[in-house]
Specification:
Layout lengths: L14 E4 L4 E4 L8 E5 L2 H5 L1 H13 L16
Antiparallel strand pairs: 1-2, 1-3
């Protein structure tokens, strides 16, 4: 018995951006490893790569994710 059912047809109104084909799809046409989503609108899915770049930039510059504090050496 399979642990997860493979859903071959998406729900109407679910939008995805396929990384392999570089296109917007309604419903998951490609495997999950090759797509971003779901998005609520086609417009959001169209800008998926832009959104990912912006979020990556925010995370890379977020001081909460970069602990530059190095352990202090005990005084001699």
């Amino acid at each position: 018995m399979a642990l997860f059912k493979k859903r071959t047809v998406g729900k109407p109104g679910e939008w995805y951006y396929c990384l392999q084909h570089k296109k917007v799809e309604e419903g998951p046409e490609c495997p999950a490893k090759n797509r971003f989503g779901p998005y609520t609108t086609r417009e959001e899915a169209t800008h998926a790569m832009e959104t990912a770049r912006e979020r990556n930039q925010e995370w890379e510059t977020d001081p909460r994710w970069h602990d530059d504090a190095r352990p202090q050496e005990p005084p001699d």
